[in-house]
Design goal:
alpha/beta; Rossmann fold; globular; binds zinc ion
């Protein structure tokens, strides 16, 4: 009988069976693929049970509001990036992992026709009560999207999402199914080549695994926690696996508020 960890030998990015357990952290082990250098956790969410109902009371609402204020500038920069690439007016846009709908609302105010996916009931309730946005709980692979919205959207966005999903290539392929020919996909995710990650790897090796600095912070076994961190070349490879033509790749927005992240923009082939 196979060990439960045998399945992690298969790299989540290049699919070669060349991944080996490399960093043993407090709650998870990070596998490293010797073929493509991809790093990913051995933790998967799998099908999550329905979360216990949480009431959006005024204290919770105030807390979400306070936390989300930090992302106001980022929302404006993300929208500016999209606006440089295509006219947002009347654009059919799907935001995957929409959170409380900040980006959706900003795009809607510019004339976009927006839909959003958000698994958290609390965030959906907040978006509905504060911005009159109705977010969908069904994730992108569900028949709701895959049969009802094939080749429907002009733009799909995944802001800080791909590092959280169980299988990033498969999730991106499902997202691309929903894009019209010539559609755009924008994706932002932490950069594995950022200094804190590289320093953490070095310390882990020098201390024979006794210390890992920030590695424990880069990965999580909480539901929808971080499961993989990409380098820039790996993001390009991810786009290629999903059949996207690379249009844009950047380390940060102009005013540098997204340090330690990469932003990539891919397009489906024109029809
Ligand atoms: Zn690989």
């Amino acid at each position: 009988m196979n060990s439960p960890h045998d399945s992690f030998k298969r790299c989540k990015l290049c699919q070669a069976t060349t991944a080996v357990p490399t960093y043993h952290l407090a709650k998870t082990t990070i596998y490293r693929c010797s073929n493509c250098e991809f790093h990913f956790s051995d933790y998967l969410d799998g099908p999550l049970p329905p979360a216990a109902p949480t009431i959006l009371d005024s204290n919770t609402s105030r807390y979400i509001d306070m936390r989300s204020r930090a992302s106001i500038d980022l929302t404006a920069q993300r929208l500016a990036l999209l606006s440089r690439c295509r006219d947002v007016q009347a654009c059919r846009l799907l935001d995957i992992g929409a959170g409380i709908g900040r980006f959706m609302l900003a795009a809607k105010q510019q004339g976009a026709l927006v839909e959003g996916i958000e698994p958290s009931r609390l965030r959906r309730d907040y978006a509905l009560s504060n911005s009159a946005l109705s977010l969908h709980p069904d994730t992108v692979e569900s028949p709701f999207w895959q049969t009802g919205y094939r080749e429907y959207f002009h733009v799909i966005t995944l802001w800080d999402v791909i590092e959280h999903v169980d299988f990033p290539v498969e999730t991106l392929l499902q997202a691309v199914n929903l894009l019209k020919p010539g559609g755009l996909l924008l994706l932002e995710t932490p950069d594995r080549m950022a200094l804190p990650y590289r320093l953490s790897e070095r310390l882990y090796r020098l201390s024979n695994g006794r210390f890992n600095l920030f590695l424990d912070n880069f990965y999580s076994v909480a539901p929808y926690g971080h499961k993989q961190i990409f380098t820039r070349p790996q993001l390009v490879e991810l786009c290629e696996h999903a059949g996207l033509q690379l249009c844009y790749l950047s380390g940060a927005y102009q005013c540098q508020t997204a340090r330690g992240k990469n932003i990539i923009l891919g397009a489906t082939k024109p029809g």
